[in-house]
Design a protein that fits this description.
globular, 6-stranded mixed sheet, about 210 residues, 10 strands, single chain, alpha/beta, Rossmann fold
């Protein structure tokens, strides 16, 4: 899914520097799903750092142009990817829409905000792919609205096998700027993790649902 290893390592380093990603193998986080995790990723933090924000905008736009040159519309997944989608759409001089997690309960009850022509060729932008379920819900919504979804680009993915299978099943091509494997590599190089902690983090990804219980 990562298309450029050097970009993946550079971004992993930036995310660690600004604490968008925190690693706590000895004091795990608890996700909303109940999963115990030695890592927490909040890519909204990147918006507060102009250098990182610019890096993301430029790299995401470059990858979209390379992989999906026929794109006509950029779609952000609410809420985490709305800002990046707007930045990338501006960089590419393209229209932008965003997809809600659920339709509004009032007004026009929109699920997709913005103007979207039927048949439009769309690339979806996501901030983080974990299980892939919420990301693929957005893809489903766009397809049901008549869009031709070319694929999805994300800032970061944990690389879970379940997510890879889900994207394959939905026939949605996914690329990410960085991922868990490159993060571990950079964390070890920076001495953020010792060997034992790195092994703990590697084991977590193999079985995240049962890790830590």
């Amino acid at each position: 899914m990562v298309t450029n290893p050097e970009i993946a390592k550079r971004l992993a380093e930036l995310l660690l520097q600004i604490k968008a990603i925190e690693l706590r193998p000895q004091s795990p986080f608890t996700w909303a799903s109940g999963i115990k995790s030695p890592i927490y990723c909040d890519n909204r933090v990147t918006l507060s750092h102009p250098t990182v924000r610019t890096f993301l905008r430029e790299q995401m736009a470059a990858q979209i142009k390379e992989q999906h040159p026929a794109v006509e519309v950029i779609a952000g997944v609410a809420t985490g990817a709305i800002a990046l989608a707007a930045l990338v759409a501006q960089e590419l001089n393209l229209p932008m829409v965003y997809v809600r997690s659920a339709a509004k309960g009032h007004g026009r009850q929109n699920l997709i905000e913005g103007h979207l022509e039927k048949g439009a060729r769309v690339v979806v932008i996501e901030d983080l792919v974990s299980t892939g379920m919420s990301s693929l819900q957005a893809v489903d919504a766009l397809r049901e609205a008549g869009a031709n979804v070319l694929g999805m680009g994300a800032i970061f993915t944990y690389g879970f096998e379940d997510a890879q299978n889900a994207f394959a099943e939905k026939e949605c091509k996914l690329f990410t700027l960085s991922d868990y494997a490159h993060l571990l590599l950079v964390a070890e190089q920076r001495n953020t993790l010792n060997k034992e902690e790195a092994e703990t983090l590697a084991l977590w990804r193999q079985d995240p649902k049962n890790w830590g219980h």
